[in-house]
User: Which sequence fits this backbone?
């Protein structure tokens, strides 16, 4: 009888251990940064980091959200010179400086004052701003007018307006991803508002993380005709098919402003998707290349082989065309 009990106990222990070692897909979704987010990772137990994601979101918003009146960036934009910025602001500012130089100003977080002036919110007809007004606003544009000194932002022109929306969302993805990596998770996928970073794979299904490249639908419907496998990298997409305005002749103008002229960007380029090591870089470069346009972007990518790019554009016949550069997956 004792022997049977011992055998039964061994069987129960083995079954219990096997159950404990069974992999779990942990999934969390919610709202953050004015959009939605989702986080999934694989572990041997069910874990809930919702409060941690909320805390990270609150910290980043308090630092860099232009929608919060008492955030650090809002105070700086109002002329407060006493603000001591945190590590998140420092990281994003330094990355912005580097990209500003690399792209010869095509990526410029100080252009937001003109984006606001052109009122790129709800779609509507282009209403031309007075050229004198544009010229006066352009005087304060240029990240070279802003420096970082002793964890303080110094603006040479008090009217210079900082806005990191073109890479802050990607940066937040990296912060969430680093949070998971610091806890030893090797298989995860983080997404915030369509910007994504993944590591490892979906080992439960024994498949890579698969993500879609959104089609440029002007009717606001979502569809994905291209799906790629994400392999220890990040992807971000910038497009002109969501925020745009139309002039009297039917020309579409993107919400991306030409940093040299101050006018909305008219281009046949509809979207750019970038694969890079970090989501912040993918986010920023996607914005920069949209501003550059197709031909200039192709030249830029020749000297930046580390960036994989996928373009969707209209040809001279208004037909949709695609172009993959630097090894962006063709599958």
Assistant:
């Amino acid at each position: 009888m004792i022997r049977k009990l011992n055998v039964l106990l061994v069987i129960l222990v083995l079954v219990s251990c096997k159950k404990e070692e069974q992999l779990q897909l942990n999934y969390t979704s919610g709202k953050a940064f004015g959009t939605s987010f989702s986080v999934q990772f694989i572990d041997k137990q069910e874990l809930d980091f919702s409060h941690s994601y909320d805390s990270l979101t609150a910290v980043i918003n308090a630092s860099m959200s232009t929608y919060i009146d008492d955030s650090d960036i809002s105070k700086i934009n109002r002329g407060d010179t006493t603000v001591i910025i945190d590590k998140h602001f420092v990281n994003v500012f330094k990355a912005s400086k580097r990209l500003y130089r690399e792209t010869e100003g095509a990526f410029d977080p100080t252009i937001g004052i003109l984006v606001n002036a052109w009122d790129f919110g709800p779609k509507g007809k282009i209403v031309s701003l007075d050229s004198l007004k544009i010229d006066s606003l352009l005087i304060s544009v240029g990240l070279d007018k802003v420096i970082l000194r002793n964890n303080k932002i110094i603006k040479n022109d008090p009217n210079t307006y900082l806005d990191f929306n073109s890479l802050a969302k990607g940066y937040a993805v990296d912060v969430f991803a680093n949070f998971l990596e610091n806890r030893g998770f090797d298989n995860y996928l983080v997404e915030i508002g369509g910007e994504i970073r993944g590591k490892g794979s979906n080992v439960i299904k024994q498949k890579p993380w698969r993500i879609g490249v959104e089609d440029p639908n002007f009717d606001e419907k979502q569809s994905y005709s291209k799906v790629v496998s994400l392999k220890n990298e990040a992807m971000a997409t910038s497009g002109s098919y969501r925020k745009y305005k139309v002039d009297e002749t039917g020309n579409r103008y993107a919400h991306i402003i030409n940093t040299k002229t101050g006018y909305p960007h008219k281009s046949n380029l509809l979207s750019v998707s970038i694969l890079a090591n970090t989501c912040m870089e993918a986010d920023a470069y996607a914005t920069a290349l949209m501003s550059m346009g197709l031909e200039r972007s192709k030249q830029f990518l020749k000297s930046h082989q580390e960036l994989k790019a996928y373009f969707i554009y209209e040809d001279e016949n208004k037909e949709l065309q695609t172009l993959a550069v630097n090894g962006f997956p063709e599958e």
User: Anything to note?
Assistant: The chain has nine helices and 15 strands. The radius of gyration is 23 Å.
